[in-house]
Design a protein that fits this description.
340 residues, two-stranded antiparallel ribbon, Butyryl-CoA Dehydrogenase, subunit A, domain 3, mainly alpha, single chain
């Protein structure tokens, strides 16, 4: 039976999805705030969605929707030109997930309460927490397509169904010996997960030792009568996380991690929304994780609009519905802090 790592059973609760074993040891410092901010009941979250039955839904009616494509680049993986190879997952197939009637969430509430940095938490610490939390949610979704079919002995996402890491007609490539190479989606996702875990476990990028001095938070700045304008990501002398021991490249590394996570979400939707998420009636859980991801990405400027183009119709729909809160747009964290 397919599983969603706790999300199937608890529905609206996003606080009980367990951390992957390989990230669990980062809890002592990086997750000391988790209990206070990830309880849906405390944050006004409730059950959402419109699926009243636990029975798998029938396939959606055949309709056509616009497709969006893009060419992107960055390491360790870069996107190639549009692929013209035949694939098991039809890139020309209808994109039901771009339609409003197929875009419910399994929770109700304002995702800003889950991503906005509290005044008593240093921004670098909070971003590190957000990165680990977003990987935790993504990992749960990836486990669904990695479930092995007992009949075929193959996972849902395998070398035959997904010979390339695609999102519609867009194909992402991985750097192999310094050259862009097309690899299967299972291999791509496996390398992304290993790369993210290596970053999270890097004591230089994600330091866990106690730092000397007091981290600079908005609350401390207000108490001292100093300006609460947050650190500019582009400022080489006052980078995000500096007072908490994070390296100057920390914010850029966070952007790289979130970009790779977005590419995994793009593949989940374009290649696997129908099978398995729609078939097991858990597309609303995938939507919840993705809305949370997009809110964090936009609020802190972690994924560019160009990178998000493969999912732009759905993102625009969530923005229109204000599931991605207005505060996450037009400057996000920096605009909100400057206005207070």
């Amino acid at each position: 039976m397919l599983r969603l790592c706790g999300l199937v059973a608890i529905g609206c609760s996003i606080s009980l999805l367990p951390l992957p074993p390989h990230t669990a040891r980062r809890i002592p410092r990086r997750h000391k705030y988790k209990g206070a901010f990830y309880c849906p009941n405390r944050q006004g979250f409730g059950r959402g969605g419109n699926n009243k039955s636990n029975n798998p839904p029938k396939s959606p009616a055949q309709t056509s929707t616009p497709q969006h494509q893009a060419t992107m680049s960055n390491s360790p993986s870069i996107s190639s030109s549009l692929s013209v190879e035949n694939q098991a997952n039809d890139p020309e197939g209808p994109k039901y997930f771009f339609q409003e009637k197929y875009a419910p969430l399994n929770v109700r509430g304002n995702f800003l309460t889950l991503c906005a940095c509290p005044k008593n938490v240093e921004l670098g610490e909070w971003l590190a927490h957000q990165i680990v939390e977003q990987y935790r949610l993504l990992h749960g979704m990836l486990q669904v397509i990695q479930e092995v079919n007992t009949v075929t002995g193959l996972p849902i996402c395998n070398e035959n169904t997904c010979p390339t890491m695609s999102a519609g007609r867009l194909t992402y490539t991985w750097l192999v010996d310094g050259r862009a190479a097309k690899i299967s989606a299972p291999k791509f996702i496996n390398r992304v997960e290993k790369w993210i875990v290596s970053k999270i476990h890097d004591p230089v990028m994600f330091p866990t030792e106690k730092v000397n001095g007091t981290p600079e938070t908005s609350a401390i700045k207000e108490a001292n009568g100093a300006s609460t304008t947050p650190s500019d990501p582009a400022n080489p002398d006052d980078w995000i996380g500096k007072s908490s021991g994070f390296p100057p490249t920390f914010y850029k590394d966070c952007q790289g991690i979130m970009k790779q996570m977005f590419r995994c979400y793009a593949h989940l939707y374009h290649a696997h929304w129908l099978n398995p998420f729609w078939h097991i009636n858990k597309h609303d859980v995938l939507n919840m994780c993705f809305v949370h991801f997009v809110t964090v990405s936009k609020y802190y400027g972690l994924v560019s609009d160009k990178e998000m183009e493969p999912m732009q119709p759905l993102i625009e729909l969530f923005i229109k519905q204000q599931r991605v809160p207005p505060e996450a747009l037009n400057g996000g964290h920096w605009a909100q802090q400057a206005a207070t």
